[in-house]
Amino acid sequence: MTQPKVNSRAPPGPTPTGKGVIDVTVVLLDGGYASTAVAPIEIFYSAGSLWNWLHGAAEQPHFRVRTASLDGKKVSSLYPLALTPQMAIRDVEHTDIIVVPASIWSAQDPKVRKSGLLPWLRKWHARGAYIAGICSGVGFVAEAGLLDGRRATTHWGIADSLSRRYPKVNWQPEYFVTEDSRVLCSGGIYAAVDLSLYLVEKFCGHEVALQTAKSLLLSMPRSRQLGYSVVPLWRPHDDHKVKSAEDYLRDHFDRELSLEKLAARIGMSPRNFIRRFKTATGRLPNAYVQQLRISAAKEMLEQRHPRFRMCAARSATRTSPSSAIFSSAIPA
């Protein structure tokens, strides 16, 4: 899961409520993937509780989770599963975080507009709440105008259509999770897990986030920096030769690499390979390999892996100011 820097303008700070339990409202929408609502519910509910219970300690819940639909009525997912909310969105009296899950509904759907969802999101954001859109749910946040001039991501399959409809948004679909001015976005369906754990760490600290992930048998997001930096090492493209090179790099990033040999493996000149690789992946080969090494080291550190020190030492010896990741120096 992703790697320049944390894609967030908001500095770390106190929880929205200062101290105490944080109120989370998960909006339930018709025609969606239920997991984009259920996963955040379970993660927030478990934070400070499940790990403690498993270890015989007193539970210390950090979040109070409620569910609300547009009209307070049961909603249906894309498959034979219905979800019953606790209330309608108009009945929410206080919330610190609002999660908007994926839905096949368009943000321009008359039912959505009549529901008051968009002004409701604007109202709570103006009151200081964090608004989090998941996958296609980001479209509702954008339609509400909360993403204008701000960083955002979404599922790569709808990124182009959303960028055309909302040109004022700084779309960065290569990221799994973005945060900008108390508005958060996540990519695909299961990026709901990344976003939820990101928020747990943001407001409760890394240890609670790690305990929550472990107690639910979840993996921590694939790349982390200053909390979570969730920028994928890959992005969808159709250059099969470059994909072959990426596969090779993922299997051999801990070895000495030769740019000439790598280019020869896929039948290209070094210069053409660099150009094609950058076009397809958005990164030069040096930067790509460096990020693979950083991500591997972070995962080992996260898991207290016994090979971490060896990996760090090997990476350090190969990452000098002259940037000799490949045996032929190329721009990073």
Helix content: 25-40%
Distance between the termini: 21 Å
Quaternary class: single chain
Topology as H/E string? EHHEEEEEHHEHEHEEEHHHHHHH
Strand content: 5-15%
Strand order of the largest sheet: 5-2-1-6-7-11-10
Structural class: alpha/beta
Return Rg in Å: 22 Å
Overall geometry: globular
Largest beta-sheet characterization: 7 strands, mixed
The number of distinct helices, counting runs of at least 4 residues, comes to: 13
Q: Point out poorly predicted stretches.
A: 1-6, 8-15, 222-232, 316-324, 328-332
Q: Provide mean pLDDT, rounded.
A: 83
Short summary of the structure?
The chain is α/β, with parallel strands linked by helices and 332 residues long. The chain has helices spanning 35-46, 50-54, 110-115, 117-126, 138-143, 159-165, 191-204, 206-215, 240-252, 259-265, 270-281, 285-302, 308-317, and strands spanning 22-28, 63-69, 75-76, 82-83, 87-88, 97-100, 130-134, 151-152, 170-171, 177-180, 183-186.
